[in-house]
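Hey Z.,

So I finally got round to the guanosine-5'-monophosphate thing we talked about over coffee. Here's the setup:
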Amino acid sequence: MSYDDQNIFAKILRGEIPSIKVYEDDRVLAFMDIMPQADGHTLVIPKASAVTLLDLDPAEAAYTIQIVQKIARAIEKAFDAKGIVLMQLSGAAAGQTVPHVHFHLIPSSIHQMRTHAAQMGDQVAITQHAEKIKAALAEID
Ligand code: 5GP
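And the result:
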């Protein structure tokens, strides 16, 4: 699938629009979802340009999943989460709304999550949640 470099996550990666980051290295960025489906809802994205999981280079997919696991551990610790939903929507037909591949980490039950990409979260609360995740990451490392 052809990649639109004007998508919102490409702009976040280039620093053209703000995001609340919890982790970044040369290949991956993790930041808070602006419309969280539960407190602590975090997005993990490879920096490589790819629309869906199927478009992503396998080596980048493998590396991204390692970081997904690392962030999941931090979320578990930060929120004392008993379960975390890992969600990845590939293609508009699946409900994907931002055409840059990403992994959702949602500390919630699948039965209790808020509606997908529906309601803006409180920015102050989201920032506090990010601080908790970053603190947990620092303790894990
Ligand atoms: P998708 O539907 O593509 O799987 O998920 C896209 C996610 O990106 C949604 O959960 C939505 O809330 C989130 N999102 C959309 N626009 C922005 C934005 O500008 N910043 C952040 N941080 N998240 C966004």
